[in-house]
Specification:
Structural class: alpha+beta
Helix content: 25-40%
Strand order of the largest sheet: 4-5-6
Order of helices and strands: HHEEHEEEEHHEHHH
Radius of gyration: 20 Å
Distance between the termini: 42 Å
Oligomer: single chain
Largest sheet: 3 strands, antiparallel
Shape: globular
Strand content: 5-15%
Number of helices: 8
Number of strands: 7
Length: about 200
């Protein structure tokens, strides 16, 4: 079976020749930069170069294709690109404010949310809050050609990367304490918070 056939069989509840393997490419199956830096020499990849990070909150490493091959990974990810109108500014310790206005403080191995831009806003202010454009063209420039090339030239199962859920992003914007309280006692605010992303 090719990797694509293997993943398709599993998704169709059919028995593949082995369990499909997914590793090191998404926000949910990535590998931390520290663990990855230790993994490379163990695999004999001493010349892989400095570790690059694609998720600054979780500090997930960009995995060398040779590592994916070594572990028999069946998938390859197609990820949206950064918005060219937004420049991420990392502080010296790795803390940063993201495109949504959420400030994340470096706390050991990871970054934790410490400031949420909608935390003190009322419903009217939340509805007016300027959110980034999720369909800004630079995010998707060249992705169609990249996906077509991978599909035609390899047998991998292609996956579309995604980040958590709408509930998670709303909690980040409102702050987790307020989000949980509003979810229980002011659900109209939660619908308002979702509206710019996906109509309720």
């Amino acid at each position: 079976m090719t990797p694509r056939e293997r993943v398709r069989a599993a998704l169709n509840h059919q028995e593949p020749d082995r369990v499909p393997i997914e590793f090191g490419q998404d926000f949910h199956n990535g590998i931390h930069e520290v663990a990855y830096a230790r993994l490379l020499p163990a695999l004999g990849l001493h010349e892989a170069g400095p570790v690059r990070v694609y998720d600054y909150m979780q500090r997930l490493a960009v995995v060398d294709p040779r590592v994916l091959e070594r572990f028999g990974v069946d998938t390859r990810y197609i990820m949206a690109r950064p918005n060219r109108h937004f420049r991420l500014r990392l502080e010296e310790d790795g803390s940063f404010e993201d495109e949504w206005g959420v400030y994340r403080k470096r706390c050991g191995y990871y970054c934790e949310t410490v400031r949420s831009p909608m935390a003190d806003l009322d419903k009217a202010a939340i509805a007016r809050f300027p959110l980034p454009d999720p369909i800004e063209k630079s995010r998707f420039a060249g992705l169609r050609q990249h996906a077509a090339g991978l599909h035609q030239q390899t047998g991998y199962a292609l996956m579309a990367g995604q980040a958590a859920s709408l509930f998670y992003l709303s909690a980040e914007l409102l702050g987790f304490e307020r989000f949980m309280n509003d979810l229980a006692f002011e659900p109209g605010l939660i619908r308002c918070g979702h509206y710019p992303i996906a109509p309720a």
